[in-house]
Amino acid sequence: MVIATKHGKQAVLAAPFREELGIIPIVSKLFNTDAFGTFTGEIERKSDPLATAREKCRAAMDLTGCSLALASEGSFGPHPQVWMGSCNEELLLFKDLENDLEISYSALSVHTNFSGRKVKDQQELTRFAIAAKFPSHALILSKPDSRSFVKGIQSWEELYHYFKHLKEQTEEVFVQTDMRAMHNPTRMQFIGQVAQKLLHKIKTACPKCATPGFGMVGVRRGLPCNNCNEPTDSVIAHVLECLRCHYSEEILYPEGKRFEDPQYCNQCNP
Known about the structure:
Layout: E1 2-4, H1 10-21, H2 49-64, E2 68-78, E3 86-96, E4 101-109, E5 116-119, H3 122-131, E6 139-142, E7 149-153, H4 156-167, E8 173-177, H5 185-202, E9 215-221, E10 235-241, E11 248-252
Parallel strand pairs: 1-2
Antiparallel strand pairs: 2-3, 3-4, 5-8, 6-7, 6-8, 9-10, 10-11
Helix pairs in contact: 1-5
């Protein structure tokens, strides 16, 4: 199985897949995932995360001749529900060419140092760096609105050197977290956690046809309000489906509660 990465993700992906599935993971030094998009935007990601992961798998298979591939695609931005909070969404895709199977798993985490801002002096830069878990987590410097970046900065000496150099050319310097996996231990750890979830899904067979990858494809909303008993937008069931025969099941009350608090009810708290 080829792991479609150039950013060291095999550190958390290779061993679990070897131990759980009995396969031999490889990485090609010739494979360039930056061609599919970069976090700093020099190369825009043209497709959604799943389509991009699929493209990575196909390209890595073509390059190596492997019939199995694993790709990861990360996204960062404001949390959809937590005000002023950032989040990291990771998607992992396992592709089996011979059996025509694609099994994916995605998850959201609020545990991320994702951030960026303009700074005017070394004191502001230092405060940002400490908050961003530097130097264990690398930083990137650039001139504002520039497409030229100094990436992978991992020492205070380097950070101050490049900052001083850029300050000679501009009043403000843009500093941001380096979200590439090999430079961001928090993200790397989360990728490893998502990999375990994906492996569990791969090893779960359809109860009807035994195809691997039987897992959640969606949710059903309508958990009743504890006050008026009307359906709310909260999840009442997880929907599981087979990738091949489309046999489906529902897991009722997946969060362990049968009623929703009235504060989340559109009738009681419109």
